[in-house]
Design a protein that fits this description.
Blueprint: H1 11-24, E1 34-35, H2 45-48, E2 55-58, E3 62-72, E4 89-93, E5 98-101, E6 108-119, E7 130-141, E8 155-165
Parallel strand pairs: 1-3
Antiparallel strand pairs: 2-3, 3-8, 4-6, 5-6, 6-7, 7-8
């Protein structure tokens, strides 16, 4: 099932209405997100996301597809660091993270971090890594949400955007 066209959930809604409930094992009345493993050495974003529903957005200069996925975070050696490598590239952090607060209580409930996908340089070639025009905003639980009994830890919701230049 998919989200209604043109509806964009707020950061707070993604944490409170979806991620927290899924992490607690509470079934959602309807789930418009696919669960996908977007991190790992065996896949790339275009392979993992080939069968998800994309919402289309247009501007004068860009055309972009947006989708939401639920994914398990891969911890390096069970520690706090997250592995964000794929078969042919890396999701590189663009921000240190933005705190998300519950509007009614004012409590910290989650974090949002931005990433851009970079393809690895071919062996033997110098220069910059290739920017694949994939942008991801990763939402994870934080603050008071971690006080709940969570059946599924280390999950995140990712808003993934694929950007294309607009053709004339």
């Amino acid at each position: 099932m998919r989200i209604a066209p043109g509806v964009v959930p707020s950061d707070e809604e993604l944490i409170n209405c979806y991620l927290l409930k899924v992490s607690m094992g509470i079934p959602l009345p309807w789930n418009w997100m696919s669960e996908k493993e977007i991190y790992g050495e065996t896949t790339d974003p275009w392979e993992v996301l080939q069968d998800v529903h994309w919402e289309d957005f247009h501007s004068e200069t860009k055309f972009k597809h947006v989708t939401y996925v639920l994914t398990k975070l891969l911890r390096v050696n069970g520690k706090t660091r997250i592995a964000r490598r794929t078969k042919s590239g890396t999701w590189k952090g663009q921000t240190s993270g933005k705190e998300i607060y519950d509007e009614s209580s004012g409590n910290l409930i989650g974090l949002s971090k931005m990433f851009t996908f970079y393809k690895n340089k071919p062996k033997g070639r110098s220069g910059e890594e290739e920017h694949g025009h994939w942008i991801m905003q990763e939402f994870s639980l934080a603050g008071v949400c971690l006080n709940f009994e969570l059946k599924f830890k280390d999950y995140a919701i990712c808003r993934i955007t694929r950007m294309f230049p607009k053709e004339n």
